[in-house]
Amino acid sequence: MDEILLSHLKDLSAKADRTGRFTFTDFLNLDEQNTLQIAGRELIRYECFGGVAGCERVIARFGDPEEMGYEAPFPVVCVKISPLQQKFADELSHRDILGAVMNLGIERCCSGDIVLRDNVAYLFTLERIAPFICENLMKVKHTSVSCEVTDAPPEGELFRTEALTVNVSSLRADCVVAAVWRLSRGNAEKLFAAQKVFINGRLTESCSAQLKENDIVSVRGTGRFVYKTVSGNSKKGRLFVEIEKYV
């Protein structure tokens, strides 16, 4: 666990409690969210949000609106990054967008999820640095781009999922992970041992952890899915499990 981050989280929590004003973290990755959850009992009430439902990188807000007596929005906005000439643009990737942003001197903790739809990127970022990005990000790879803060991401869900039914022997996390990505049980177990599996933002090293409805399972470097429900049983007693896999 990151002791420096833990100390910072406690300081933010104490400040919110002392002043009666909300405090916010920067964007937290999965490891950092795990530290936040472990420290939960030592912190005042907090909520997490990354810009829209489904974001993996999130900001934590310390404070209870009822106790504070007011509401405060999360300091996150969405920057739309579009090729100036789509016809002649490179095919842009998450790595391309992230690299271009970080080349501006912006630290990773200042930006959240990046979603690409039809070669247009939607970058969630701290509100205070959005104007800098819009003014200075002019090219991604060899493609000239324009940037603007957008209040409304594209119609429909920005994060898309596909419904899958997998056949598993039990609701053990390793069984479902193996089925979703068509891995052997042994290779699935290695992901847990390598500390790459998170359930609802919390590191899960136990292969035998049992999934519950609407659990979000993230496998770092591989992907993530939402476990929905058991829809039936096979004649051999195996389970048909419904999931929503992020694509």
The CATH class of the largest domain is Alpha Beta
- Biggest β-sheet strands, sense, barrel: 6 strands, antiparallel
Task: Count the domains.
Answer: 3
- Overall, the morphology is globular
Mean pLDDT value:
94
Helicity range: 25-40%
Tell me the β content.
25-35%
Please identify which CATH superfamily of the largest domain we are dealing with. RNA-binding S4 domain
Summarize the helix and strand pattern as letters: HEHEEHEHEEHEEEHHEEEEE
- Count of distinct strands: 14
Kindly report the CATH topology of the largest domain: Structural Genomics Hypothetical 15.5 Kd Protein In mrcA-pckA Intergenic Region, Chain A
Give a written overview of the molecule.
The chain has three domains: 3-68, Ribosomal Protein S8, Chain: A, domain 1 (2-Layer Sandwich), CATH 3.30.1370.160; 76-150, RRM (RNA recognition motif) domain (Alpha-Beta Plaits); 161-246, RNA-binding S4 domain (Structural Genomics Hypothetical 15.5 Kd Protein In mrcA-pckA Intergenic Region, Chain A), CATH 3.10.290. It contains seven helices and 14 strands. The protein has helices at residues 3-19, 30-38, 65-68, 94-102, 130-136, 173-180, 185-193; strands at 23-28, 46-49, 58-62, 76-83, 111-117, 120-126, 139-140, 143-150, 161-168, 197-199, 202-203, 216-219, 223-233, 239-246. The strands form three sheets. Strands 9-14-13-12-10-11 form a six-stranded antiparallel β-sheet. A five-stranded antiparallel β-sheet has the order 5-6-4-8-7. A three-stranded antiparallel β-sheet has the order 1-3-2. It is globular. The mean pLDDT is 94.
